[in-house]
Amino acid sequence: MLLNVCLIFYSFSAFAAEQDAMEESAMLRIEEAKTNANISMELAIEKRKRAQALAQNADLATYKATMLIRIAEAALAAESVDNAAAYFLD
């Protein structure tokens, strides 16, 4: 009888130790996933900022090109760059 109790206790202890190891492993995986998620979030934020800066640069380049075309069209119509610039910028 005592041998049976010892075997049951040993089995329970082994099961509990295995369960603890599995829980610890799961917690480590959760922490690793959280860390990876935070890193990914920071990278996404930096990429978003870069994309916004590039979009602003593209908008500015588009604006400048539009203004150059307007000035060139006005110069052709006025037959003088100085007259066109004065007309356009006033």
In short:
The protein has helices at 2-78, 81-89.
Can you describe what's shown?
The protein is an all-alpha fold and 90 residues long. It has one domain. The chain contains two helices and no strands. It has helices spanning 2-78, 81-89. Helix 1 (2-78) packs across helix 2. 0% of the residues are buried. Keywords: Signal. Residues 1-16 form the signal peptide.
Offer a few descriptive terms.
mainly alpha; single chain; 96% helix; 0% strand; rod-shaped; 90 residues
Helix content: over 70%
Order of helices and strands: HH
Distance between the termini: 107 Å
Provide mean pLDDT, rounded. 84
The number of domains is 1
Shape: rod-shaped
Number of strands: 0
Radius of gyration: 36 Å
Q: Roughly what fraction of the amino acids lie in strands?
A: under 5%
Which regions have little confidence, pLDDT < 50, spanning 5+ residues? Answer: none
Signal peptide: 1-16
Keywords: Signal
